[in-house]
Design brief:
Length: 99
């Protein structure tokens, strides 16, 4: 994905995050970051990352109680975040705001 910003800010001292002229680019970059965080299973990803103050149109992207791993042999046991116990089958929850 190629992003181009036409405004140069010396020493990056002028934050353009709230500048409406860059909202489309900002949103695309934000989506790309969130997709990458999901792909690499970033431990710091959470729905707060998708609900930034400057991203009024965003919806929570992840709020599950556990995050299953692929069958790659790295983590043979998938554990529930709430209990720490191994999960049984597939757990599907209705996604609701927790806060």
């Amino acid at each position: 994905m190629n992003f181009t910003i036409a405004v140069m800010t010396p020493n990056e001292m002028h934050n353009l995050i709230d500048d409406i002229r860059f909202a489309d680019v900002r949103s695309k970059m934000h989506d790309a970051l969130l997709d990458y965080m999901d792909k690499i299973r970033d431990p710091f990803r959470s729905y707060q990352w998708s609900l930034r103050p400057w991203r009024k149109d965003a919806l929570p992207r992840w709020m599950g109680a556990f995050r299953p791993r692929p069958q790659d042999g790295y983590s043979p046991v998938v554990r529930d975040y709430d209990t720490g116990l191994p999960t049984q089958g597939v757990k599907v929850e209705e996604k609701k705001q927790k806060f």
